[in-house]
């Protein structure tokens, strides 16, 4: 082997013949070993015997032994290559019928050289090619490119390409070898057939000459041409039967050699793995790295286990197994830490679950590896002693406090640097809970609507703690202050007559106001409608339009609904979240910590477990169950409010229902005439006007704020 530039050894291309090696191995295993004699003694005896006796002895040798004997000295080479000793080769092949027989037209020494000779090109001497028995040659790729010719490229006497049924195709031997370095073949089709260029030219000249003589009327030439064609085709057919058997034998022996090498390397891999386990490495790590160990052993070419060979690759094997051991221990410790953290969360108030930090954040605040120091095997939660569990519980409590303190401090620093309020309160928690301070998630604001507008610590912490939709996406670890959304939120609060410096998110949520985007209309069946948003949904809508680059929303404009209008919209809105969604939990215990249930199942649980009566559903109040904010669920579908024509008239003849119905003027007249038989409706008696929209507002921004946006 020679060293490469990167320091790893480079294996030289071998010239070993797999056929010869496998044959010698079979003979060595099948014949008994003779002890007490040496090769030198055998040679001395053969030299003293007469030639006739030597030839009789040679007839009992294997053809590969005759080939090797011809390489010993000039005397043996002259003796075995003499034409008068060909019967020795013939008898040797007869005694070994498992070998492919020599085809006609090829001498026994030449055939033996093709079977057992080194993998060297007979033309240029390059290394690597194997014998092509179909053509009885051994050429490399470069020599084969100008020694072989595809059969479909041969021209006949008229200058046309020959076809598959041409007589020339049956007069030359063809090969379907894929490459010159492996015993693999194409499907035997006409377009893939290759033949020797020399043989094609030699046969084509004779056939062309005989055809020319036949055209000039030379007597008996056609008979000679027919006999020559038949004889040549017959020779090619007979030779093909011999060479097909040789090719099949070569492939069978080649596969047998590869299988034996594979089994030998597997035994080496098994012994190396067992040796690593004896050195103290975990069986799981060794089995996981089995394919890497296999690659290392195959690169080194080890087919037999020896202490020297193991010492050569020991460092590489231990490096791989140690790396896997550290990775496994880290994964096991993370899994155990996550299980312990989940158990700790269950001991806390369920209302705080959504605001707790995710477990991966714990590794940034505390060195949990120090808790498992010296443990190469990490068991489950049942194997942990109470003292260690108490220590971990203390660490989790400190971690939650440290994470919450650091996160709030970072958020407050953002507010102090980029606050849109002229007078910010000095108290920290109210400042973070103000409805005018809007944060956004830079990691998912382009693909998720919930990450575009985050107001209040509970919303921010719930978003960070929400599970990832894909393991290939980075978790939402932090939020940034959004000045654009904060300006819109401040203007929205002012349009309601509230003070942005003192209005909290809870105050805005409790009002139940509804807003319309003055820039958006949704035509439905000839009626222009607008989506009625709550204040958070409207801010998300404006952020979406800003990110999409909508020119019409460059200066936001919105309409505020009156109290009656907001009540009308809320009465038509669907319940959100839906009771059938599995996002509900019990607010009294941790029964639904891992698997949230539907609202009905949560109510049944509270009635049966906490009230002791499965029929006590009427005693369950809204504080007993809640939506698990850690779950991901889709946004609410806003109600479509009729704008043009405006539905703002109410029928006073109809009884009051929980869901209010409004009409436009034309539809109301038809309704009163058909339903109540009123042909001349009067205001205040038959119908009344309901004020839906209190006013339209336009965002007020200075030029400096616009430039910053």
UniProtKB/TrEMBL annotation:
InterPro entries xref list: F-box-like_dom_sf, F-box_dom
Residues annotated as signal peptide: none
Ranges in coiled-coil conformation: none
Stated name of the protein: F-box domain-containing protein
Lineage of the species this protein comes from: Eukaryota, Fungi, Dikarya, Basidiomycota, Agaricomycotina
PROSITE patterns to which the protein is assigned, alphabetical: FBOX (PS50181)
Domain of life per record: Eukaryota
Limits of the F-box domain: 43-92
Organism name: Agrocybe pediades
């Amino acid at each position: 082997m020679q060293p490469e530039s990167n320091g790893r050894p480079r294996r030289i291309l071998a010239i070993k013949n797999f056929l010869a090696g496998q044959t010698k191995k079979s003979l060595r295993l099948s014949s008994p070993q003779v002890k007490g004699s040496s090769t030198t003694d055998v040679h001395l005896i053969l030299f003293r015997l007469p030639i006739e006796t030597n030839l009789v002895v040679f007839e009992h040798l294997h053809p590969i032994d005759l080939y090797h004997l011809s390489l010993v000295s000039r005397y043996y080479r002259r003796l075995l290559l003499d034409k008068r000793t060909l019967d020795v080769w013939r008898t040797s092949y007869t005694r070994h019928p498992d070998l492919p027989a020599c085809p006609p037209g090829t001498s026994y020494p030449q055939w033996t050289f093709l079977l057992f000779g080194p993998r060297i090109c007979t033309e240029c001497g390059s290394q690597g090619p194997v014998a092509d028995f179909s053509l009885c040659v051994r050429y490399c790729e470069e020599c084969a490119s100008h020694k072989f010719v595809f059969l479909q490229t041969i021209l006949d006497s008229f200058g046309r390409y020959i076809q598959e049924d041409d007589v020339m195709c049956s007069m030359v031997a063809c090969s379907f070898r894929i490459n010159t370095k492996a015993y693999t073949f194409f499907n035997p089709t006409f377009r893939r057939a290759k033949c020797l260029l020399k043989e094609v030219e030699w046969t084509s000249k004779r056939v062309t000459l005989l055809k020319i003589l036949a055209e000039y009327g030379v007597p008996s030439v056609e008979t000679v041409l027919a006999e020559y064609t038949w004889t040549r085709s017959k020779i090619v057919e007979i030779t093909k039967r011999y060479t097909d058997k040789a090719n099949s034998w070569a492939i069978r022996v080649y596969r047998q050699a590869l299988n034996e090498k594979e089994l030998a390397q597997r035994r080496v891999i098994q012994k190396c793995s067992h040796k690593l386990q004896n050195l103290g490495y975990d069986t799981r790590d060794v089995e996981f790295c089995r394919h890497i160990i296999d690659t290392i052993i195959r690169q080194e070419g080890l087919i037999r286990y020896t202490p020297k060979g193991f010492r050569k690759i020991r460092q590489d094997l231990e490096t791989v197994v140690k790396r896997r051991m550290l990775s496994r221990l880290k994964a096991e410790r993370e899994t155990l830490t996550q299980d312990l953290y989940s158990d700790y969360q269950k001991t806390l108030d369920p209302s705080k679950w959504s605001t707790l930090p995710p477990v991966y954040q714990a590794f940034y605040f505390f060195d949990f590896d120090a808790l498992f120091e010296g443990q190469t095997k990490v068991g489950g939660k049942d194997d942990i002693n109470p003292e260690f569990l108490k220590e971990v519980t203390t660490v989790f409590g400190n971690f939650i406090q440290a994470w919450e303190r650091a996160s709030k401090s970072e958020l407050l620093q953002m507010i102090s640097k980029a606050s849109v309020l002229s007078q910010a309160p000095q108290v920290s928690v109210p400042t973070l809970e103000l409805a005018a301070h809007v944060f956004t998630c830079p990691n998912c604001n382009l693909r998720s609507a919930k990450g575009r507008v985050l107001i209040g610590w509970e919303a921010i912490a719930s978003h960070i703690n929400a599970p990832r939709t894909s393991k290939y996406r980075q978790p939402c670890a932090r939020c940034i202050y959004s000045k654009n959304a904060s300006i819109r939120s401040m203007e929205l609060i002012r349009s309601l007559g509230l003070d942005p410096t003192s209005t909290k998110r809870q105050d805005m949520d409790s009002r139940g106001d509804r807003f319309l985007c003055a820039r958006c209309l949704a035509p439905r069946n000839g009626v222009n409608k607008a989506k009625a948003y709550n204040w958070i949904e409207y801010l998300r809508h404006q952020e979406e339009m800003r990110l999409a680059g909508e020119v019409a929303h460059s200066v936001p404009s919105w309409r505020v609904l009156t109290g009656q209008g907001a009540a009308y919209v809320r009465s038509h809105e669907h319940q959100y979240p839906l009771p059938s969604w599995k996002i509900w939990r019990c607010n009294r215990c941790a029964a639904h910590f891992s698997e949230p249930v539907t609202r009905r199942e949560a109510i049944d649980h509270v009635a049966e477990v906490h009230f002791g009566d499965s029929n006590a559903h009427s005693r369950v109040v809204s504080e007993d169950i809640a939506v698990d904010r850690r779950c991901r669920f889709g946004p609410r579908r806003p109600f479509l409010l009729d704008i043009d024509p405006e539905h703002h008239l109410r029928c006073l003849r109809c009884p009051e229902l929980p869901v209010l119905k409004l009409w436009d003027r034309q539809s109301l007249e038809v309704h009163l005439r058909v339903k109540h038989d009123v042909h001349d409706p009067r205001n205040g008696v038959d119908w009344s006007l309901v004020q839906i929209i209190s006013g339209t507002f336009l965002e007020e921004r200075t030029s400096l704020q616009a430039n910053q946006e």
